[in-house]
Amino acid sequence: MKPKFLLGLLLASLIPQIVMAQVTFKRDDNSKLMVFEMSPGEELTQSINIVNFNMEPLDLELFASDSVITATGNSTATSKYEKQSFVGKWVNFTDPLQTLNPEEIRSVNYTIRVPDDATPGTYSGGLSIAPMPKAVVQKATGATTRTRIATGIYIKVKGEKVTSYALDSFSHQYDNDRHTFSFDFRNDGNTLLQAVGAIEIKNIIGESFTAPIGNISLLKNSKQTTVINWDKTPFWGFFTATAKIKVLELDIITNSYKEVGQFEKTISFSVIPLTAIIVFLSLLALLAATLIIMKKSRKSYLKKCVPYQVAEGETLMSIAKKNKLDWQKVANINGLKAPFELSKGQKILLPPKK
């Protein structure tokens, strides 16, 4: 029997050709994809044919799984042992274990049950056939993996898609010489969102720093507080931090994220470590003590100075010369400024004589 009815969409690419020729899915209509349009909470029973091209009986296992995008951009079905979130949970075979005789074609039933809270959109996955362990087994990187063949299946969940999101409570914390930023990313819609971007930090002299935020995924109607560490730790300074974030939404038809918006939020903060505060306060206390000592010393010195009354025609220079004093010292004691003018009867202080 020639496999002319094989479905062209085969998601498992690591299966040896000889194994792929042993068993496969067979459909009467090879021109359309397997697409089911269903409402949340709806259940549907379907069937699909499997065929054994081998000359010996085959023990097989059938299962459904989600699909993912590979590094090359192609779609592939996940393995049975990976976490299933959508198609892999919603689709179940009535009799998952089957034994097929040589050249036998058998119809097998499976049930699709869409959860009541399923988000509207299109979900992709795969229906897989895998030989039981006594058949072909491959060893790879220390793990045992069964070969398989898969055919694609799409489930369209009816309903209106809602995209709504917000960034709340952007703040900076400095504790134990460690900088962190935190913000609340909120998904108010019914789609799967992802936030990507970075926090750009600048100081008052124009230096720039960057703190990546990584990828933050958020399910529908949920909120997440994210804390970002800033590895660059300045000793002190005044800064502004701007969170520049792109919002991506999962396109469940292509199983890829598409940008749906972006936003920015800016905050200002200062960094004054405790050690710097202690040093500053110590210097301030030392300066204050010095000023107090200098003031007391000057007051004590002025008490020792000799009062003098300026006579008519006397100048600062003449008074200093007559008393054998330094005129600049006399000026400093009395707080005299240029041009150092004196008037008759003015009282000044003269340094005490040694």
Secondary structure blueprint with pairings:
Layout: H1 17-20, E1 23-26, E2 35-38, E3 43-52, E4 58-69, E5 75-77, H2 87-90, E6 91-93, E7 97-100, E8 105-113, E9 121-131, E10 137-140, E11 143-146, E12 149-157, E13 165-175, E14 178-187, E15 193-203, E16 208-212, E17 216-218, E18 222-230, E19 237-251, E20 256-271, H3 274-304, E21 306-309, H4 316-322, H5 327-334, E22 347-350
Parallel strand pairs: 2-12
Antiparallel strand pairs: 1-3, 3-8, 4-5, 4-7, 4-9, 6-8, 9-12, 10-11, 13-14, 14-18, 15-16, 15-17, 15-19, 19-20, 21-22
- Helix/strand class: alpha+beta
Q: Whole-number radius of gyration?
A: 42 Å
Q: Give the CA-CA distance, first to last residue.
A: 130 Å
Shape: rod-shaped
- The overall strand count is 22
- Percent helix range: 10-25%
Strand content: over 45%
CATH class type of the largest domain:
Mainly Beta
What would the CATH topology of the largest domain be?
A: Immunoglobulin-like
CATH architecture classification of the largest domain: Sandwich
Which homologous superfamily in CATH is the superfamily of the largest domain?
Immunoglobulins
Counted up, domains total 3
Mean residue pLDDT: 81
Taking the sheet with the most strands, its summary is: 6 strands, mixed
Quick overview:
The chain has 354 residues and is α+β, with helices and mostly antiparallel strands. The chain has helices spanning 17-20, 87-90, 274-304, 316-322, 327-334; strands spanning 23-26, 35-38, 43-52, 58-69, 75-77, 91-93, 97-100, 105-113, 121-131, 137-140, 143-146, 149-157, 165-175, 178-187, 193-203, 208-212, 216-218, 222-230, 237-251, 256-271, 306-309, 347-350.
